[in-house]
Write a structure and sequence with these properties.
Residues 454-467 have a biased composition (Acidic residues). Residues 1-23, 434-467 are annotated as: Disordered. Pfam families: Kelch_KLHDC2_KLHL20_DRC7. This is Kelch domain-containing protein 4. The protein is mainly beta and 467 residues long. Helix content is 12%, strand content 43%.
Length: 467
């Protein structure tokens, strides 16, 4: 019986390999027909172009261009927020970015910093800012797609940007995670801790639940050995480090093949705690445990944005989308703009729905009330959410109007102590100007790019729920 099973498995493996080879040949033929270079060649060209630059330039801009799936993190020392990368779908293709943009909170100004040797364009990567060596920005992974959307390229590279000297450095360290996007990375006790994500190549995909630590002391990767009940493979989860070394992972998304031409997506709403074993100081051994949640839990959703509140074991989460599959080809999406606070100080992590109400004079008209309501960020996914000086900042993201997927460039702030109202830093009238039955997003085709490094067109919006 054992031999027969082995022979059966061998036949399946050979059939799978043969099928994938045929698919790859078909894709290569299609790429050749449209005259597109291989995606690895495109990425290498972008990286070489960046290396050829010899000086740092800083340019004031009105605001970043429309985008989603970018990173948006607070500067560790200065009164600034740092934006890197992302993507923008203009109705015909997707533009990928590798621009580095700083928002100065006090002066309400945006500055594009173009430094030599920058990482190639990407989206759905992870970024962490730290105070070491006068400030550093660390970036790992992400994805790139070719202009035809036939080809996808996932990165497994690690980069650091010196916030003072403005130098990009590619870190060549062995033993790290494989290429992926939609993963999460946090800073915890002089280590970058990375979890999850996914990888696809147009005709196949894989989700991960592996766990890695990168030491900021000796610049080495290690696989974290774990015991207990680990989270299932997923991408797009929320991950927050606590002051005592523990880490919380919430939610996420994965999809699986149900039959030949049908993949089913699943939204996860579970929560797990990663706890270093007693005496462990370098994340050599940790324990996973599934934890209960209390309070006003968010409804099922994915692709929401999250940011930690340093020193308080709290985090804020905003927006997200719930996709309901009515059939193989029928999908209904519900987008959200509610704001939650997750309190991790409690024995049981506790959710709280944050209510933002403007206190208006009773004599004010209904029209005034209506205008106030419109000041709240609209429902969206994949926006940037950052916390600095007791203030939340939200930028951009994606929302659907009818059959159209719209990318935003509005910008809001909220004083979390007062919770009086959302402050509109930059408005966006796109939702008012685009009708739900538009055949394309032609109204966005003239959108200016904030950097000449948007060398490519890229990926399909079908990936929206996975990052």
């Amino acid at each position: 019986m054992g031999k027969n099973k082995k022979k059966g498995a061998s036949r399946i493996e050979k059939a799978t390999a043969k099928r994938e080879k045929k698919i790859a040949q078909r894709i290569k033929k299609d790429i050749g027909r449209i005259g597109e270079p291989e995606v690895s060649t495109i990425v290498a060209h972008i990286e070489a172009k960046s290396k050829a630059k010899v000086k740092v330039t800083e340019t004031k801009i009105d605001n970043p261009s429309r985008r989603s799936n970018f990173t948006f993190v607070p500067h560790p020392d200065k009164d600034e927020i740092i934006l890197f990368g992302g993507e923008f779908h203009n109705g015909k293709n997707t533009i990928m970015y590798n621009d580095l943009i700083f928002y100065n909170i006090s002066h309400n100004t945006w500055t594009l910093v173009d430094a030599p040797g920058a990482p190639p364009s990407r989206s759905s990567h992870s970024a962490v800012s730290i105070a070491t060596d006068n400030g550093q920005l660390w970036i790992f992974g992400g994805e790139f797609a070719s202009p035809s959307e036939y080809q996808f390229y996932h990165y497994n590279d690690l980069w650091v940007f010196g916030l003072k000297n403005k130098i990009w450095t590619k870190i060549m360290a062995q033993g790290g995670p494989c290429a992926r996007s939609g993963h999460r990375m946090v800073l915890n006790k002089r280590h970058l801790i990375l979890f999850g994500g996914f990888q696809d190549n147009t005709h196949n995909y894989q989700y991960f639940n592996d766990l890695y630590a990168f030491s900021l002391t000796d610049y080495k990767w290690k696989t974290i050995k774990t015991t207990g009940q680990a989270p299932s493979p997923r991408s797009g989860c929320q991950m927050f480090a606590m002051e005592d070394g523990r880490i919380i992972v919430y939610g996420g998304y994965y999809k699986e093949k149900i039959k030949k031409d049908y993949d089913k997506g699943t939204i996860l709403i579970d929560m797990f705690m990663l706890t270093p074993e007693k005496g462990d100081t370098d994340f050599s051994n940790c324990r996973w445990s599934k934890v209960k949640q209390a309070g006003f839990l968010p409804t099922a959703r994915c692709s929401l944005s999250g940011t930690p509140i340093p020193g308080h074991n709290r985090a804020y989460l905003f927006g997200g989308v719930y996709d309901e599959e009515q059939g193989e080809d029928d999908l209904t999406s519900t987008f959200y703009n509610d704001l939650f606070m997750l309190d991790m100080e409690q024995n049981i992590p506790t959710w709280r729905l944050i209510s933002v109400k403007e206190q208006i004079n009773k004599l004010e008209s209904e029209v005034a009330q209506s205008s106030i309501d419109l000041e709240s960020p609209s429902p969206r996914t994949h926006s940037g959410l950052a916390f600095k000086h007791n203030t939340l900042f939200i930028y951009g993201g994606i929302v659907e109007k009818g059959s159209k997927s719209l990318t935003l460039n509005d910008f809001y702030s909220l004083d979390i102590k007062k919770l009086k109202k959302w402050n509109v830093i930059c408005n966006d009238n796109l939702l008012k100007s685009v009708t739900s039955d538009s055949s394309s997003d032609d109204s966005m085709l003239t959108d200016e790019t904030s950097s000449e490094t948007s060398d490519s067109d890229a990926s399909s919006d079908e990936q929206m729920d996975t990052d």
